[in-house]
Write a sequence for this structure.
């Protein structure tokens, strides 16, 4: 009998485990850790939203919903997209409710990419992008963005990365991990290049509610962009609903119907109680969103100013809840920095290189923590930087 | 008084945590330390910032005794001064923690704190009900405090997030 080396597919075998996992394992066993390593709100979902899910269960709504999601929810999403981002989508045919933005990304890439197609990805960027492109059979072409441009992709950088194999561009604004925001003028320039090369756009707007200095602009709302753009959003970040696993896709009818085919076979539909909760979130939750955003904004200012004061140079992130300071001053690599900081000072951060090579020399710190915790973290970081600068 | 955006934010932030330093506040609100200091001083003078409070859960402190009662008071309003005069007479007592004019079944809602039930009872019978225009009182003793001034009492919910996540 011959022995197989592995039953696992080559495409999966090739995937690297997430660098975040490693730091999770390292920090998990330690006590007294102040965590700036979390990519989620420190608020609990609003009570009214939680209560709506409980009520739906009490009333016995425990079966599948339509593949694309409860029609009531899709209608609310359509209204929300319209009033917040000036985008019109038909709730019957152009909106799909998904299991988080994560599943939305997965099926969007599978729907767009043929074997060997190139997808342009901004680096530093969210950890799932490259693996998801590769799992879909595509080739991830990463473009390193620069701190002096606020980690924003410029039209020239985009243009330079395009080949005749390029199928799509994946944009994320506000960005995880850098907090950078593509403002309207930036988007217009990018859109020109995208239209000239007839590319599709995947726009991950999961942090759209958390843009602090200027209103969020969706690239799909620019002229000539709607029909080539898949907008991905969800409830995780803005509505503090990460555990509910609820996101959605808005796309022109042809693409949306293609996406729905994958979604219906792979997932059937998103969780029913979560969908009822999401209806309540859109109906009654906006005030809480405003309140949470205000609180993040204050903490952002405090934390970013403090980082700069202790010599960890940091641009002011326009959105999300991450600061992405440079650690160059210490001469340590981002992994060394994060590991030593955890062991010596018990502060957990995420090394920048897990978000791609473009993140080397930086660390990601989430400021979605109480002011008390942030103040203590600043104290410890200061001591750490003093001990490690030459 | 018309306040600027950052001044409103200052009030919101201080209301949640009055122990923040001028320096921290200046960073949070992106104004200079001097501006924060000046504005706080002005708001204190204008009685917008009235007091910095600590919220204490006395039920956790061993040996601490105390009772709180909320008393519904019916009042015959006086010509010319309405309810104001009697409200003033009531709130001057140090046992009285708050006085509100209410619509509905009674007129004033008075919160009284004492060391014992007896002490509160004596206050009601000797002081409160003997005031000329007080027609009747209904006393409710508080049994347990669940939430006070926007703060939930009891054990704080801990952070349920895992330490590192995407
Ligand atoms: C940029 C980005 N996109 C998508 C996601 C996934 O969000 P969801 O919880 O909706 O799956 C995250 C979560 O960290 C993220 O940071």
């Amino acid at each position: 009998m011959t022995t197989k080396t592995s039953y696992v597919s080559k495409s999966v075998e090739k995937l690297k485990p997430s660098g975040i996992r490693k730091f999770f394992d390292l920090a998990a066993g330690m006590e007294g850790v102040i965590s700036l390593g979390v990519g989620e709100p420190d608020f609990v979902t609003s009570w009214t939203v939680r209560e709506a899910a409980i009520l739906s269960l009490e009333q016995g709504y425990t079966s599948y919903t339509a593949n694309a999601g409860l029609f009531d929810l899709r209608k609310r999403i359509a209204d929300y997209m319209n009033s917040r981002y000036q985008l019109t989508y038909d709730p019957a045919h152009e909106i799909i409710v998904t299991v988080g933005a994560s599943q939305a990304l997965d099926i969007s890439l599978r729907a767009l990419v043929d074997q060997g197609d190139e997808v342009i990805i901004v680096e530093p960027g969210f950890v799932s992008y490259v693996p998801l492109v590769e799992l879909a059979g595509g080739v991830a072409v990463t473009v390193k963005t620069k701190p002096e441009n606020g980690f924003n992709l410029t039209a020239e950088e985009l243009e330079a990365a395009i080949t005749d194999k390029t199928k799509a561009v994946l944009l994320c604004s506000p960005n995880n991990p850098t907090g950078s925001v593509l403002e309207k003028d930036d988007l217009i320039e990018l859109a020109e290049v995208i239209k000239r090369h007839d590319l599709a756009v995947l726009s991950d707007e999961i942090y759209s509610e958390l843009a602090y200095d200027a209103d969020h602009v969706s690239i799909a709302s620019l002229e000539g962009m709607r029909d080539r753009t898949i907008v991905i959003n969800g409830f995780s970040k803005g509505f503090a609903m990460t555990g509910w696993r609820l996101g959605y896709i808005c796309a022109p009818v042809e693409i949306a119907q293609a996406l729905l085919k994958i979604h219906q076979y792979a997932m059937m539909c998103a969780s029913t109680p979560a969908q009822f909760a999401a209806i309540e979130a859109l109906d009654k939750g906006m005030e809480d969103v405003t309140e949470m955003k205000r609180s993040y904004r204050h903490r952002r200012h405090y934390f970013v100013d403090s980082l700069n004061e202790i010599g960890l140079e940091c641009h002011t992130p326009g959105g999300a809840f991450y600061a992405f300071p440079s650690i160059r001053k210490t001469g340590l690599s981002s992994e060394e920095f994060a590991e030593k900081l955890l062991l010596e000072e018990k502060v957990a951060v995420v090394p920048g290189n897990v978000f791609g090579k473009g993140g080397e020399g930086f660390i990601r710190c989430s400021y979605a923590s109480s002011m008390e915790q942030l103040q203590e973290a600043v104290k410890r970081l200061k001591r750490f930087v003093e001990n490690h600068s030459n | 008084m018309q306040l600027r955006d950052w001044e409103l934010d200052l009030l919101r932030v201080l209301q949640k945590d009055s122990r923040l330093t001028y320096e921290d506040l200046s960073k949070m609100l992106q104004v200079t330390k001097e501006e924060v200091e000046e504005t706080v001083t002005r708001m204190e003078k204008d009685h917008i910032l009235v007091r910095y409070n600590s919220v204490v859960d006395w039920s956790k402190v061993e040996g601490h005794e105390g009772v709180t009662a909320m008393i519904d008071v019916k009042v015959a309003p006086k010509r010319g001064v309405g309810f104001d005069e009697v409200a003033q007479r009531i709130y001057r007592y140090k046992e009285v923690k708050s006085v509100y004019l209410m619509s509905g079944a009674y007129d004033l809602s008075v919160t009284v704190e004492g060391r014992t039930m007896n002490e509160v009872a004596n206050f009601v019978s000797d002081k409160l009900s003997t005031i000329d225009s007080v027609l009747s009182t209904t006393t409710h003793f508080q049994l347990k405090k669940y939430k006070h001034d926007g703060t939930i009492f009891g054990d704080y919910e801990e952070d349920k997030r895992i330490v590192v996540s995407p």
Remarks:
- Residues 10-45+286-388 of chain A form a domain with the Aspartate Aminotransferase, domain 1 fold (CATH 3.90.1150.10).
- Chain A has two domains: 10-45+286-388, 47-284.
